[in-house]
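Review form for a predicted model. The reviewer records the input and the model, then writes brief findings.
Reviewer: anonymous (R2)
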Amino acid sequence: MLTSKRIELRRSEIRQALAELAANDNPSEEETRKMAELDTEYRNAETRYRAALIAEDEERREAGADLETRSDREWSDLVDGFEVRQIAMALDHGHQIDGRTAEVVSELRNSGAYQGLPVPWEALEMRAGETVSTGTPDPIQTRPIIDRLFPNSVASQMGAQMISIDHGEIEWPVVTQGASVGWQTSETGSVGAAQAFDTTDKALAPDQTLGVQMKITRKTLKQSGAALEQAVRRDINSAMGVEMDRVVFLGSGASGEPLGVVAGASTYGITETAIGASADWAAFRAAVTRFITANAASGPAAVRGLVRPELWDFMDGAIWDAGSGITEWDRLAAKLGSLTMSHNALAAPSGSPLACSALLTTSAGGVAPIFVGKWGAVDMIRDPYTDAASGGLRLTALATLDVTVARPAQLEVLTGLELA
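Model under review:
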């Protein structure tokens, strides 16, 4: 029983005893002394009661905070012990899944429908030991869990946010028109006309499914043992990571692919600036200036850049100051918040002279420039028939993903950066 509750019960007993003694019009000396003792005890109990309430309130807050995060911690603990090896063996010869792996599969099946065995996204992370990397909930999102599946991916380095969605669609209302300001021009004049508060919805829909296939030979199943765990994880991780980086930026929006932010810049309303000259810091500086004047960035350090390796090769060889040996690349790298090189997320140089594109992004007010939605878990499906002649097993991993841009003002594509 709580201390405050025990004190409250005692105070109730004291009040009852005092009421009985007070009903006597001619109390004896002993009854008078008894009333004085009970009165003193009641006053002391009042002080102790207030102190107990304060202490218990603090305990309740700590317990409440613990309960708010306990479910997430318990899920992380379960995923820590998830073994992809058990999934492979279950699909191959009906191995009975047990331990934490069985608990995770049961939880995922309760929250979604899968043709095969579900594998949590966190289990595919490349991590040291078995520590699960979890993201930090961002107040601008409407979902409770935000993860970064591939922390070292190009999309992640450019500020993209991975959103975990159980089912259905998810959308963000983005303000397009809001409050107006104005000064009163005369004593009786108006401060200006009000305008409607308008928003537009940016949606993520489960319309695109990525499939990863792999063959596991009979020798691998019999010989690898626990090593198969990391092997399967590395294969699925690298295959998915490469393709996700490509479609986030270069997805065509057709043939089952989501629309990438570079390929679909005009559709998303992202500014595209044609440089049509040799790549240098001045071209990037002008784009950063546009970010700042649009209140999308506070300075060049808040801007991330995505470039081709060929662009680095050219700019690192373009000497800006012969005396100091400073190159155009040195100037660019010293000013921007971060630079990421990828041959997969941007199209190869083309034209004469050769020219390529670059992407600049910034996170304004904590809002990520790109959102990548992932639905449920990875659906792992077995195919024991295709490679039956060799005793092998073919696995297919299905993942439903989508890409969208919340505020186009947080991105800009530079085209025609000549490499000559």
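Findings: The chain has eleven helices and 15 strands.
Further findings: Residues 3 and 52 are 6 Å apart (CA to CA).
Recommendation: see findings above.
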